[in-house]
Amino acid sequence: MRRGCIFRRGSGYVVKVEMDRDPETGKRRYYWKGGFRTKKEAQEHLVRVLAEMQQGAYRSERMTVAQLLDLWLANKQIVEATRDHYARSARRVAAYLGRVDVRSLRPEHLQQMYAAMRADGATASMMVKAYQVIHQALDAAVRMGIIPRNPHDLVPTPKPPQREVSALTPEQVRRLLDVAKGSCVENMLVLVLTTGLRRGEIAGLRWDDVDLERGLITVRHSMDQRRQLRPTKTARGRRPVELTAPAIEALRREKAKGRSDVWVFATKNGTPWFPQNISAEFRRLLDKAGLRGVRLHDLRHTHATLMLLAGANPKVVQERLGHADVRTTLNIYSHVLPGIQRAAAQRVDEIIGLQSGCNPAPASGEM
Fold first, then answer.
1. Does the residue 312 lie in any domain?
2. Residue 191: exposed, middle, or buried by beta-carbon count in 10 A (0-12, 13-18, 19+)?
3. Rounded Cα distance, 307 and 301, in Å
4. pLDDT tens digits for range 151-197
5. Is the per-residue pLDDT at 107 higher than 80?
6. Whether residue 188 sits in one domain with residue 132
7. Which of these three, 54, 76, 94, is where a domain ends?
8. In terms of Cα–Cα distance, which of 326, 321, 267, 327 is closest to 299?
9. Element (H, E) at 211
């Protein structure tokens, strides 16, 4: 049974609780906490600490931040591509805090780490990813009873990087498709431009996912960079996508090649494409088209931007792109919304007859 006591020091009260013996020295360890203005505050804290110790918190076994990150990552259920991203961020955190005992970690240690990362040239994206990794790992430490609460809760969230959305102009799209004619990725590019599918979703598309008669594909999987087929990350990512006539024609052309009965887009050997090889072919076409600074993912942005400019409801665009939440869509494409609002307001003006040079139509019964 743990023993604790409260005693007065100066104008306040101090809590002292007996803990396990140090495994290295054999000496008894104690938990101390002062600064309580009233005895009641100290008693409430003592009760909470004793309850937390009963659940396994404040254990004597030493665990460093590096060990915690390894343990957390090993037990996290995520796809391999995401695991690689998390592992890079975990190594970045461990470079600054790896040797620190998790139980000794304080908010000021974390703030010092972010300041050092910033001084070392870390980007805003790196900072946000490091924040996500260490926060989740410390949450796991709380659940495992290693620490009573997450010190990271008291650290301000780094400001996420501003997403720079780049969409091609209609003229650039036509130029790209002109140079892509007859290439091995022509039909892929048509499909991305007309559906907004991600690169991995294109590479992982199977003929079982395609219904040419109904003009519909169902996105269920994504191909990772190791050419492993994975389920989409979220439930929203698994979605039906309606096809336009150019997309259906592109898929029929691809099917006529007869390269695979399984994969919609296959190499000459009948195997699915590595996603990074699709990007390499895309860059080659960009050089021919004289387009610079364009990513394959920008074709997805182009599709979404043109849909919004055409008056599509953002909720429809969200569902088509497979975003988890409509707020994600609105945040990414916020640069398009002012123009949409202006056009919608002008349509309202037209309906009620307030266009420049026009008078409102008289209401029924008015002269």
1. no
2. buried
3. 10
4. 999 998 877 666 567 889 999 999 999 999 999 999 999 999 999 99
5. yes
6. no
7. 54
8. 321
9. strand 210-211
| Cα three-residue angle 230-160-86, rounded to 5 degrees | 35
- What the block records as the tokens of 102 is 């998790």
Q: Which residue's structure tokens are 């099917």?
A: 255
Look up the pTM and report it: 0.62
- 213 and 139 in a common domain: no
Domain that holds residue 275: 170-297
Statement to judge: residues 147 and 117 lie in one domain: yes
Nearest one of 189, 160, 162, 164 to 174, comparing CA atoms = 189
C-alpha angle 285/233/156, rounded to 5°?
A: 100
CA distance 60 to 48: 19
Q: What is the pLDDT of residues 322-365, one digit of tens each?
A: 998 888 888 888 777 666 667 667 767 777 766 555 554 454 44
Sequence letter at residue 353 = G
Nearest Cα neighbor of 18 from 303, 36, 27, 9 is: 27
